[in-house]
Predict the structure.
Amino acid sequence: MHAAPDITRYRKHWAERFGTAPFLPMSRVEMDALGWDSCDVILVTGDAYVDLPSFGMAIIGRVLEGQGLRVGVIAQPDWHSAEPFAALGRPNLFFGITGGNMDSMVNRYTADRRLRSDDAYTPGGVGGRRPDRSVIVYAQRVREAFKDVPIVIGGIEASLRRIAHFDYWSEKVRRSVLLDAKADLLVYGSGERQVCEIAHRLAAGESIDELTDVRGTAFVRKTLPHGWIEIDSTHLDAPGPVAPHPDPYAMAPPASAERPAAGEGETVVRFVRRVKNADRDRSVIRMPSYEQVSADPVLYAHASRILHLEANPGNARALAQRHGDVDVWLNPPPIPLTTAEMDWVYERPYQRRPHPSYGEANIPAYKMIRFSVAIQRGCFGGCSFCSITEHEGRIIQNRSEGSILREVEDIRDRVPGFTGVISDLGGPTANMYRLACRSRQIESACRRPSCVYPGICPNLDTDHAPLVRLYRKVRELPGIRKVLIASGVRYDLAMQSPEYVRELAQHHTGGYLKIAPEAISEGPLSMMMKPGIGAYYRFKELFERYSREAGKEQYLIPYFIAAHPGTSEEDMLELALWLKRNGFRADQVQAFLPSPMASATAMYHSGKNPLKRVSRAGGDVRVPKGLKVRRLHKAFLRYHDPNNWPMLREALRRMGRADLIGSGKQHLVPAYQPPGTGAAHEGRRGARDAAGPGKRPAPFRTQHTGLPRAPRR
């Protein structure tokens, strides 16, 4: 793994003398009270300002403050004019712009493209406080207010749109958001390392145009720099090994190859040719251009495969994608934070509550997350529909036990309304804390998208003992009555440590435990890169055994996705029958939402599987598209809802499964239709949709009907 500057060791900026702000200022009055004549950095966000390390903007703001900088915040500005963006004046270094904790389009629209009426990141939960494609709109308004101030965009919205990407809401491929926002620099991934380097170099007098070597950033350039090797991958040749993987057991490193002198011009090789290890750091992969991928879905899938293969910070190379007459250039991913750096980030002086300007207004996302603690980042699961890997990476970044315990005590002592219950200890997943490859050399050379699919890699350390110790230490703290685990449990991993399952079932489950099989058929599971249903049964057996030992009646709540690429009507029927057989009824269901840059989104758009070599001749994927098909897939999950019965009866007859229509236990839906349901209900729903936007759907929930409901704890 490449070395990186420790973000805690930079020499502090001179403005450190002003000290720490109680809250990062949102007005000139607050700046005056702090004795500031200006801000060094101003952050613009689509979320309300909550000073809590679960909100990305708060983390970046406090990290920059920890570098000695004066940081101001413009939260949820009125974007209809440039005036609100000038409220704090001109920053000395740059504007940092983010859409917020969620992509603004995912935040504003359902999977059926219906406008949501609420927003969990807004005071009062009110919708409509952010524009569509917030990063682009905010950047345009900042440019109107200050033409010459550097603009750096980041957060998940910018991160997932850093190259040409399929946009589900417009059903077309859009350009890199860097170009549409007319920003100077794009930060992708968790941005602490990047923004610290950017801020210090700008403060030292460098121009934003000179910052072309910061890992985890994207920028625009017109020509290939001299001395670089361009690897042409604008065709469908499979991304293969560019050099023999280094032998991690070798006693001596391979001999370095002679490099061409800088200025001798550029060297172009075909993608299937090998590039010497010594030349990797100055090799760039030429991806299919925006014009190519927007016109050819197969090349889009190929570009998606390249991006995901170049995701390991230990071996990734730079990427270049042509947009018209310029290149969008992506430097390799950032080096993951060390445990010491993670501790420093999460132990900044957060107030752990919303900014006082919101008064007593309820911010739903804050209310949900205020008693939870993030213990790790990243995920090596590689699920194709998930954006965690593209944003946080697949190398787990861990906090120390001491840091986590101090945060729990901080919640206990300072957060209003705390009753002794920690709502979650987790992260993107609940149980990847301190799990990693057994060999740093192997990890640095690996190009697999998942460490657990199709099976758990033999090089992966699956020991859950550090996590079990952490759980025990947290619940032994004075004043802590209960510690719940709300993050999703990766159950195929959990089974590798039965002691962890025992701990989870007997001490950290409040009657129900959420897990995510997502599907039960091999077709969709193989496209999702999820384990087979057998793993669910084995985990269920362990979980129920340990629950009985503790004298507890507890249930697993499985989550499923409708209409995922690779799913047929037969697959959904099989799942519906499984749900009925096991006594589950889904209250709300989630249809697949093609988020930007996910591998499953490439499947949705292209009908090809980018998890394997992409070709025009094979690798076709069944893709459920269109409102009618997506509604049918969701209806199978809600087989018990009378409003879905007409649609299901029609589908069953078409599939030759009319034998499942009737009133017996073996039937899926009855032949009769209760008054006021079915077509009548559809008419009312159509009128409601025409009248205005619908409510935000709740997350997928299931009710187990075969057993009595367990008491809430």
